[in-house]
Each structure stands twice: as C-alpha cells, then as structure tokens.
C-alpha cells in the first residue's frame, strides 16, 4: 500500500455495496495521481486492444503517447515543408520584383512579368487584361488588351473589386475573357485587380492543377507582387498620357 492519503469515493447510494463504473471513472478522472506508487496495479489492469487481445494500462498509455508523438512529428514535418516552400516562393518573388525594377518601359516590364511568372512559378498560363474606366494610358494600351469597364461587367464583374484576390475555379465567361485560347490549360486560377491610372490591370495566373489555387490559400506573395507592379506602372505613366477609347 502507498503512504499517500487518497481521497475517498463519494458516498454510495443507499443499499449499494460497491461503486458503479461511472463513479469509479469520475473518481479516477478527478484524481489522476491515484496510480502514483501503484505500479503493480498498473500492470495488472488490462484494456481491450484493436487487434482483439488485451494490453496493460501502461502499454496502452505508451501506445497512445507514441501515436501522439507521431502525429506531432507529421505536423512538424508539414510545417517545415511549408516554411521551405514559402522561402523559395519569397526568393522568386523578390528576384522577379528586382528584375522588374531594373527594366524600363511599361511594355517591357509587363512582358518580363509574364515570362517571369510562367517560368519561375510553375504556371501553365499567365494573362493580363486592362479595364478602362477614365481613359487608359497609351503606354499600357500597347502592352495589354484593353476593354471598357461597361463592356467587361457581364464577364468579370466578380473580379473587378480592387484589393480582392480571387482564387480557385473560374466561371466559363471569366476564363474566356482572361485566358482566351489558353483557357484549356487552366483548371484553377488566381486573379488580382491591380489599380493603374485610368482603370485596372487584371493579372490572372492559371494552372492545370485544380488544387494549385484554392479559395482558402494564402495570397501574401500575390498581393505583394501586385502592389509592386502597381507602383512601378504608376511611375511609368506620365500625367495625362492617355490613349484613345479602349475596345469593347
């Protein structure tokens, strides 16, 4: 017997000689230290095992701890893989941004952007489309197709909210408007409306993998790249340098 003073079970119901299973369970739950100093009792207790046999309480506890440790190890490995992926993504994003800063001219920058995204980020399609609101700069008009906002509403109204990045599956009209003939290569996409003088620049990234872009994914790097593009293009466009009305 142990020298420890053990709290007694609650009073038994009248006429009951022994505690029932629920009372024992409540007692052990309230006094988890009960088995301290009672090693022999631990080895005598048997628990049913999934294999059909039985194991001692100690063995069962060790098994549970082992399973929990394995689960924690899997989660830790997943966190490490995610951290490494994000590190590579950050390096590529930074490299592309620096390259764009070293490139002059809106047309050259947007061309470099498309090439950098396609080859550096394992994408199957990259598209850019200008949405004209109050006259689109001629320097951007030469680089991307441009559509007046009133003519684009029916197809891409859900994609025109500044600062809102849409990830996942796109509707057929959205795919056709953004990717055209490339839409056969797009099973999932990320679309960011970048604010530029005179309207928006829709930046669309597409992948053949339906799980590459999902609604619950993080968009930190896409947003960073979009913000950098907006600043660079704003510097390129001279005040009042707008072209003719866009195509419908």
Q: Which labels suit this protein?
A:
248 residues; Beta-Lactamase; five-stranded mixed sheet; 7 strands
Provide a descriptive summary of the structure in words.
46% of the residues lie in helices and 15% in strands. Helix 3 (57-102) packs parallel to helix 8 (220-236). A hairpin with a 2-residue loop joins strand 6 and strand 7. With 248 residues, it is of the alpha+beta class. The termini are far apart. The chain is built from eight helices and seven strands. Residues 240-248 have low confidence and may be disordered. It has a five-stranded mixed β-sheet. The chain has a two-stranded antiparallel ribbon with strand order 1-2. It has two domains: 16-102; 105-236, GAF domain (Beta-Lactamase), CATH 3.30.450.
Oligomer: single chain
Taken in chain order, the helices and strands follow as HHEEHHEHEHEHEEH
Please estimate the helix content. Answer: 40-55%
**CATH architectural group of the largest domain:** 2-Layer Sandwich
> Main β-sheet: number of strands, strand sense, barrel status?
5 strands, mixed
Secondary structure tally, helices:
8
Write down the CATH class of the largest domain: Alpha Beta
Q: Could you name the CATH topology of the largest domain?
A: Beta-Lactamase
Domains (count):
2
Uncertain segments are: 240-248
Distance between the termini: 91 Å
Instruction: Look at the structure and name the CATH superfamily of the largest domain.
Output: GAF domain
Strand order of the largest sheet: 4-3-7-6-5
Number of DSSP strand runs: 7
Q: Which strand-content bin applies to the residues?
A: 15-25%
**Secondary-structure-derived class:** alpha+beta
Q: What general outline do the C-alpha atoms trace?
A: elongated
Mean pLDDT: 82
**Rg, alpha carbons:** 32 Å
């Amino acid at each position: 017997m142990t020298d420890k003073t053990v709290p007694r079970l609650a009073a038994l119901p009248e006429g009951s000689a022994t505690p029932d299973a629920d009372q024992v369970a409540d007692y052990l739950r309230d006094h988890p230290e009960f088995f301290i100093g009672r090693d022999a009792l631990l080895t005598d207790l048997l628990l049913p095992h999934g294999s059909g046999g039985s194991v001692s309480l100690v063995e069962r506890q060790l098994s549970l701890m082992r399973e929990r440790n394995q689960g924690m190890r899997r989660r830790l490995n997943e966190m490490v893989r995610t951290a490494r992926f994000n590190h590579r993504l950050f390096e590529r994003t930074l490299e592309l941004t620096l390259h764009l800063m070293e490139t002059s001219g809106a047309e050259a920058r947007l061309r470099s952007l498309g090439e950098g995204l396609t080859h550096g980020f394992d994408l199957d399609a990259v598209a850019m489309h200008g949405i004209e609101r109050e006259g689109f700069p001629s320097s951007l008009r030469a680089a991307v197709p441009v559509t007046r906002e009133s003519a684009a509403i029916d197809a891409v109204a859900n994609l025109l909210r500044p600062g809102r990045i849409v990830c996942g599956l796109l509707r057929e009209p959205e795919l056709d408007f953004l990717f055209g003939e490339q839409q056969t290569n797009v099973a999932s996409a990320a679309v960011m409306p970048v604010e530029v003088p005179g309207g928006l620049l829709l930046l669309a990234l597409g992948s053949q993998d339906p799980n590459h872009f999902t609604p619950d994914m993080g968009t930190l790097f896409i947003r960073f790249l979009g913000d950098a593009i907006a600043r660079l293009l704003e510097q390129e466009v001279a005040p009042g340098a707008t072209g003719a009305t866009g195509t419908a």
